[in-house]
């Protein structure tokens, strides 16, 4: 394509802008919000904040080894989240046999076992290291013991998980929050073969934390890098929004549709590519020209044109494209001399995390560097606001 086509679609890096809603994050402000919302002596509505960690990873049909290190997906800049949401795509190979079997309990249980071990081991190890450092310091300069040392780190437990063929989502919370979580449920939408099978589509989960509803959509949209393939991805997203339906619970006044929830986060292999020739894309990736690449990112372009995800948000991307890598390598697929019969794939930001509505403040967006598959995982950290009805 001509050089002018590089700049054909001018899209700013912050087209998915951070929500301007001013989130309240301190206990002092929580106390003031109780006063602001008090309408009688019998009850009040408090505002509480929680830290969410959301990760997405296409694992390419590879079963995780027993010693797989998930620490990088738990990296919250040395701070533990209250809620962890892990979304996976292709946890099984997308062959004909697997497509006809929606769930494989062995593989999903293996992922959950690794997550449980990583979450709870991280807390225990961190506590032991903290104590060891304190003992070592006391040998040099004696210190008084203080009550601020956390001697009983919190455990995490899974509140809901669901698999549909290769798509899998699992949600973990601090054990102390369990009593405040209610009405968890799931909804699956197949968009693959015949527009219905689960090789592509979504698994959505929702629950209510205190008085606020949360919805997480884990999806794998249509693949393909030919011109026009993005329209099928747009169609998949529209079908997911239209067809996802949670169980009706009229006495609880819970929403049934995705966008009717208070806090909504969409994660997954959305498969959007870059509107540039392969050689140009590779050159710009090599030189880390993220801004030019993002100006030609399909998802941002389709959004600004009003074709998909109207009103959704994404933080600025400041990391390299997450697809497609040679397995167990830092080299992009096809970056070496092309072998006969080899299909080349231009690098792209296929793996994304976006969000909708108020009451969410994204504070981190990054990728991890595991070489397990041809995708790199992505992670987003949010501060989420929730209403708490006090009596």
UniProtKB/TrEMBL annotation:
Superkingdom to which the source organism belongs: Eukaryota
GO molecular function, one term: hydrolase activity
UniProt entry keywords in alphabetical sequence: Hydrolase
The species this protein was found in: Penstemon smallii
Residues annotated as domain Inositol polyphosphate-related phosphatase: 48-390
Lineage, highest ranks first: Eukaryota, Viridiplantae, Streptophyta, Embryophyta, Tracheophyta
Family: Belongs to the inositol polyphosphate 5-phosphatase family.
InterPro entries: Endo/exonu/phosph_ase_sf, IP5P_plant, IPPc
Gene3D superfamilies in alphabetical order: Endonuclease/exonuclease/phosphatase
Signal keyword on record: no
Coiled coil ranges: none
SMART domains xref list: IPPc (SM00128)
PANTHER family named in the record: TYPE IV INOSITOL POLYPHOSPHATE 5-PHOSPHATASE 9, TYPE IV INOSITOL POLYPHOSPHATE 5-PHOSPHATASE 9-LIKE
Protein name (Swiss-Prot/TrEMBL): Inositol polyphosphate-related phosphatase domain-containing protein
């Amino acid at each position: 394509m001509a050089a002018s086509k590089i700049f054909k679609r001018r899209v700013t890096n912050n087209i998915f802008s951070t929500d301007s809603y001013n989130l309240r994050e301190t206990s002092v402000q929580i106390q003031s919000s109780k006063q602001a919302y008090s309408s009688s002596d019998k009850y009040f509505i408090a505002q509480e904040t929680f830290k969410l960690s959301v990760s997405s990873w296409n694992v390419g049909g590879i079963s995780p080894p027993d010693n797989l290190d998930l620490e990088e997906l738990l990296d919250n800049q040395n701070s533990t989240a209250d809620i962890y949401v892990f979304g996976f795509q292709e946890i099984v190979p997308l062959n004909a046999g697997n497509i006809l079997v929606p769930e494989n309990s062995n593989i999903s249980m293996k992922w959950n076992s690794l997550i449980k071990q990583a979450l709870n081991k991280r807390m225990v190890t961190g506590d032991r290291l903290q104590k060891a450092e304190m003992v070592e310091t006391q040998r040099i300069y004696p210190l008084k013991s203080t009550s601020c040392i956390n001697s009983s780190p919190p455990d995490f437990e899974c509140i809901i998980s669901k698999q549909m063929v290769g798509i899998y989502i699992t949600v973990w919370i601090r054990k102390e929050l369990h009593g405040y979580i209610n009405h968890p449920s799931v909804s699956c939408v197949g968009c693959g073969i015949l527009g219905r099978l689960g090789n592509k589509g979504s698994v959505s989960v929702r629950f209510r934390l205190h008085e606020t509803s949360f919805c997480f959509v884990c999806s794998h949209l249509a693949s393909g890098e030919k011109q026009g393939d993005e329209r099928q991805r747009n169609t998949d997203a529209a079908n997911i929004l239209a067809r996802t339906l949670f169980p009706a619970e009229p006495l609880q006044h819970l929403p049934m549709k995705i966008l009717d929830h208070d806090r909504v986060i969409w994660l997954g292999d959305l498969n959007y590519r870059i509107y540039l020739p392969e050689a140009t894309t590779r050159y710009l990736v090599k030189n880390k020209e993220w801004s030019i690449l993002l100006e030609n990112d399909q998802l941002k372009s389709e959004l600004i044109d009003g074709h998909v995800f109207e009103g959704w948000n994404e933080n600025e991307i400041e990391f390299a494209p997450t697809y497609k890598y040679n397995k167990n390598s830092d080299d992009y697929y096809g970056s070496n001399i092309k072998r006969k019969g080899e299909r080349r794939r231009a690098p792209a930001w296929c793996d994304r995390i976006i969000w909708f509505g108020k009451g969410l403040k994204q504070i981190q967006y990054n990728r991890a560097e595991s070489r397990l598959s041809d995708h790199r995982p992505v992670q987003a950290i949010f501060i989420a606001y929730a209403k708490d009805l006090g009596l």
